[in-house]
Amino acid sequence: MFESLADRLQQALGEVRSRGRLSEEDVERALRQVRLALLEADVDFRVVKEFTARVRERAIGTQVLASVNPAHQVVKVVADELTELLGGTTSEFVLPKARPAVVVLAGLQGSGKTTAAAKLARYLRAERGLDVALAACDLQRPAAVEQLVLLGGRADCTVYERGTDATPVEVAGWALGRAREEQRDVLIVDTAGRLHVDDQLMAELQAITERVRPHRVLLVLDAMTGQDAVNVATAFAERAPFDGLVLTKLDGDARGGAALSVKAVTGRPIVFASTGERLEEFELFHPDRVAQRILGM
Amino acid sequence: ASVIGRVDDGVFERIEEALIRADLGVPATARIVGQLEEEVALGRIEGREQLVARLRELIAQAARPDGSEARLDLRARPAVVMVVGVNGTGKTTTIGKLAAALRGDLGLRVLVAAADTYRAAAVEQLAAWAERADTEIVRGQPGQDPGSVAFDALEAAQARGVDVVLIDTAGRLHNRTPLMEELAKVGRVVSGKVAGAPHETLLVIDATTGQNGLRQASAFAQKTPVTGIVLTKLDGSAKGGVVVAIAQELGLPIKLVGVGEGIADLRPFDPEAFAAALVE
Ligand SMILES: Nc1nc2c(ncn2[C@@H]2O[C@H](COP(=O)(O)OP(=O)(O)OP(=O)(O)O)[C@@H](O)[C@H]2O)c(=O)[nH]1
Ligand SMILES: Nc1nc2c(ncn2[C@@H]2O[C@H](COP(=O)(O)OP(=O)(O)OP(=O)(O)O)[C@@H](O)[C@H]2O)c(=O)[nH]1
Ligand SMILES: [K+]
Ligand SMILES: [Mg+2]
Ligand SMILES: [Mg+2]
User: Fold this and answer.
1) Measured from the CB, is residue A161 less than 6 Å from ligand 1?
2) Would the ipTM clear 0.90, i.e. be above it?
């Protein structure tokens, strides 16, 4: 169980290594291991299919099989393709000049939105010297407002909250008004968790974004997510087109294949990595690191 | 239209795809598909209808390990239930729903213990649920040792003649050794205070979880005497198939399912309905 992809590839290719030559059957055997490991890492079933097809094509190309160290070359092809799928280079998080720049965080229940809102606020304040305010627009989960107020305090940022009597759309609009008046650099809107199949809540999210016209929407995704990730991302992309992902709980030992799938299917990059419950445990995402996680290196 | 479609050459491949996309994982999927293939080869099942029925049966069987008890054992007084799991799976919400069911449907006197003293506003969240469910609460102070909150709750429960104590714990990732040790310590405090407790230790698994769920279950079961799984967020499109792998590999029964954020959105686990939803 959970052997690393790298180990598996080494094993699958190991015997032929000494011979220094690789046949097509050897490559097929290695590809079966790649498939298993990717599925175990929660890479989407369809993405795995396309991925192995692409690796097959490249690996069976004459250059690889005829090279000096073909086994090594195959591992390299897999690693390259993985990194490519994950978006190549690190994405920047560039905010527009608008004041306030508005960022909305959305996602499934419990994915880590409220924590990420406070983390992003802290990050923008500490790393870029911006004046950030948070808007408490989750009026659904018990004590969500209190949670954001506490975390916002820890991030040393203003939190706009109006209890739970108004609607989330009203609070969002009101918070935007205050952010304008007070000339904040950034307004980050925390929203309630919602299932992508819940039409009413998805419509509410859409209404929030129509009200505040965000410059950036981030989908917050738990790194432990399984095969449903692509459905989730596709549905959110329709109702609240997002610019990128915040991948959370990367301090766990999930291999994070779901994130790779979302990138592959929606084309949206992973922008931030959340690696713990503390606010400082948050950074720009480096695609090669998740490629390495999936490979188990 | 079913994922299975017609019974043709591709049928087993399509079943395999459906099970993997439901997060069963490769080994559990291979076991079920292998069994089906064998039965078809032996002529024991024929045609699409029998195939689908047998597939459901095999999933349902796998999800309910032999000899495992699916009901909660709450005979002791007080009966103590600990709820554990990784961050954000639905522990606190499940406690709120369970408290309401025990109180409302069974008329039991229930006390909830807010032993998550770490997550911001976790105590306030549980307090809101306690109010909705009309149950008593013992609150921890931010940063208080969770073991001491559990201790206080059990003491209060014994003094007041409470029937069931539900202990909420902070979410923690299963690979964080100090946090897992802390949880084991809460368990030791509980068993030191009430003989035979915790009578139930429920591990909450989010239905959207992929293969990491198996690691979560095995790590939590190593540190605490997990007696069953609560599978939450089944109201989404995720099927929660990783619990089949958990049941098969670790013998842990699934006891309850969460199907929404409302107070009444908790159900006993029904393996047949679960299997039917998995291959609908
Ligand atoms: N270990 C770890 N825990 C995290 C991380 N990000 C968030 N959490 C925890 O995950 C849990 C859920 O986080 P929240 O920020 O409340 O999630 P949410 O998406 O706002 O939840 P809802 O508002 O209920 O939908 C909390 O226990 C957080 O402390 C992370 O990167 N690592
Ligand atoms: N749709 C749906 N949402 C659920 C279900 N159970 C819990 N939730 C939501 O999931 C989010 C997290 O639930 P919590 O009960 O706070 O989770 P937790 O495990 O206590 O989280 P931490 O204490 O931070 O680890 C909340 O927004 C809940 O409303 C369910 O069965 N269905
Ligand atoms: K989750
Ligand atoms: Mg939240
Ligand atoms: Mg909780």
Assistant:
1) no
2) yes
